[in-house]
Design a protein that fits this description.
Order of helices and strands: EHEHHEHEEEEHEHEEHHHEHHHHHHHHHH
Distance between the termini: 74 Å
Strand order of the largest sheet: 3-4-7
CATH architecture of the largest domain: 3-Layer(aba) Sandwich
Number of domains: 3
Structural class: mainly alpha
CATH superfamily of the largest domain: HUPs
Helix content: 40-55%
Number of helices: 19
């Protein structure tokens, strides 16, 4: 067993938990649980203008939904400004930072005039300004040497210090910048492994330089997880892509399916078995096995994993999990209980459950136009099949309204209607289409014979006759 680690996930109130941040949170949680270490949370709410407290609650709710329980009372950076001010004062006293009064517009104008590269040009580095209102503090980046680290996912990474601009650590209003608060808090919390997204690679040398200037111990290891991309191989975007964790929950995805699938983005178990209990993923997960290449967030594969997880549920648990998605209330719950096994084998998400059993609850099924066209408009001998089915089902004895006898009756009706193959055998694939649409309004659903058994003789025959009336 590897040595226990201390990792952190640091959400900001400027965004909800999406699949990208969920992926990073999961990687931290898996490493902590794999080593018997600690998974810590920290609320990074230093941006008062953009912070929305309700989004932090979304993040916490979604982490709990995923089962990623944290091991601390999350500190808030907004309550630690005095600590960051003290760190900035130390940097100033040691000459590691200097006051700067340049605005962003001035920096851009100088760069444009000089034809230089974007970024701060060091204008105030040697002006000897005193700190005061309207003046930010910039880090005095070394001009020589390189800053680097060994990344558990990407290997050796280093940056020439000459290519790192003198970055701001404290705003002109005295508020700390993210980098200062982030580096200080990691050291203060004793974080041993920093596990985060690829987009933080370029800020890591600044983070290391800050820790060195503050005399604080750097983490033992870094791991920058692969970028998540859409099917067009573009970085997932909250504005463009379907990434909200809450949306997936509300559409009937199981948390264990989401966790299982997110773990597979950039990583795979050595035995090739992808759909498995989370305890087994914890046991096998290693950052050294994560691939640095961008990982495609494939909703079809997520849905496949979800369907597998649904099928693995005990039937009673499946009913309990599906119940919140049944808008039709207790009648729908009773209908589901009567066909739970058949429905469980066919749905991919919990939100698909009610549409599959709705016909058992409502007085008249909602007719799907595409299903009508396929099974009725383009169907073979539909009037004859409906008439024969009504006759055959109506003739069943009182104790004969059971799935196998219902099936036998519909088979006989197909022969009566002439829907047979060259050998005179009934073509059920064609014959049962209009029957299914008549009773459920759709061409897909749970097994037909079991559906008719639950629907009952009277309601089944009434719906078949209603279909005949529509054809007339």
């Amino acid at each position: 067993m590897p040595s226990p680690v201390r990792v952190r996930f640091a959400p900001s109130p400027t965004g909800f938990l999406h699949v990208g941040s969920g992926h990073s949170a999961l990687a931290n949680w898996l490493v902590a649980r794999h080593t018997g270490g600690e998974f810590l949370l920290r609320i990074e709410d230093t941006d008062a203008e953009r912070d929305r407290p309700e989004l932090i609650q979304n993040v916490l709710d979604m982490l709990e939904w995923l089962g990623l329980k944290w091991d601390n009372t999350p500190p808030r950076q907004s309550e630690r400004h005095d600590l960051y001010a003290g760190a900035a004062a130390k940097l100033l006293a040691d000459g590691a930072v200097y006051p700067c009064e340049c605005t962003g517009e001035q920096v851009q104008a100088r760069n444009k005039e000089a034809g230089g590269k974007p970024g701060y040009d060091g204008f105030c580095r040697d002006r000897g300004l005193e700190p005061g209102p309207g003046r930010a503090l910039r880090f005095r980046t070394p001009r020589e040497g390189r800053t680097g680290w060994t990344d558990l996912v990407r290997g050796e990474i280093s940056f020439a210090n000459a290519d790192i601009e003198d970055f701001v650590v404290q705003r002109s209003n005295g508020a700390p910048m993210f980098l200062l608060a982030n580096a200080f808090d990691d050291a203060d919390m004793g974080i041993t492994h920093v596990i985060r997204g690829e987009d933080h690679v370029n800020s890591t040398p600044k983070y290391l330089l800050l820790l060195g200037a503050l005399g604080l111990t750097a983490p033992e290891a870094f791991a920058h997880m692969p970028l998540l991309v859409n099917e067009g191989r573009k970085k997932l975007s909250k504005r463009r892509d379907d990434v909200s964790m809450a949306d997936y929950r509300d559409r009937g995805y199981l948390p264990e399916a989401m966790v299982n699938y997110l773990a597979l983005l950039g990583w795979g178990p050595d035995d090739g078995v992808e759909v498995r209990p989370i305890a087994e993923i914890v046991e096998r997960y290693r950052l050294e096995d994560v691939n640095a290449s961008p990982a495609f967030f494939d909703q079809k594969k997520l849905t496949f994993v979800n369907a597998e997880k649904i099928r693995a549920l005990p039937v009673d648990e499946f009913i309990d999990r599906a119940t919140p998605f049944l808008a039709l209330g207790e009648p729908a719950v009773e209908a589901l209980r009567s066909m739970a096994v058949e429905v469980q084998e066919r749905v991919r998400t919990l939100a698909e459950v009610e549409p599959m059993i709705e016909f058992l609850v409502v007085d008249e099924p909602v007719m799907d136009e595409a299903s009508w066209t396929k099974a009725v408009t383009k169907g073979k001998a539909v009037p004859e099949m409906l008439a024969a089915t009504v006759a055959r089902l109506d003739a069943l004895p009182a104790d004969g309204w059971v799935p196998d006898q219902i099936e036998a009756a519909v088979r006989s009706a197909a022969v009566d209607a002439g829907i047979v193959n060259a050998e005179g055998e009934p073509q059920l694939s064609k014959a049962q289409g209009p029957v299914r649409v008549a009773i459920s309004g759709r061409t897909v659903g749970p097994p037909l014979w079991e559906s008719l058994a639950v629907l009952g003789r009277a309601r089944t025959i009434d719906r078949l006759r209603a279909m005949q009336g529509k054809l007339d």
